[in-house]
Amino acid sequence: MKIIRFDELKAVPWKNGLGITRELAVEPAGASMDNFAWRVSIADVDTASPFSTFPGIDRTIVLLEGAGFTMLLDGEREHALTTLLEPFAFPGEAKVDVRLAGGATRDFNLMVRRGVGAAKLEVLQGPGEFEAVKIAYIARGSGHADGHPIGAGDSIVDPTRITLDNGTQALAIL
Question: Which of the four pLDDT bands, split at 50, 70 and 90, describes residue 117?
Fold first, then answer.
């Protein structure tokens, strides 16, 4: 089990260079953008920049902070990503333009290569105990991972058990 504090994550440019992301985990370890099976990251969106495209990748995005934004997918379909902790899945090859609903936002991203990787995202609500979690990100609140204290902004990799306090919300990759 490993606990990663948000301030330990390295900020790097998006694939298209128009934003910043922080990688939480990638499988296999050390994989590049071209050969990962799955990838989990947190991105900051502070301008109406288009998303990077990822052909062959299934993406799920979740608003963590801020007013959010409206996504225009392939110039046809709009989706308002304005509700905190509400996952939205879309194909990575989609051309995505965004219109900010307010100021800067932060979002959680799961990317899974079709036919290669497998991962599922769930929103966990405390109080409760959870097992069989590959990665958890504590969005709000606190708890314990294998007896160690965890709080908002912490990511937990390969815990045996996560205990979330009352009112705590987390994103889990299963």
Answer: confident
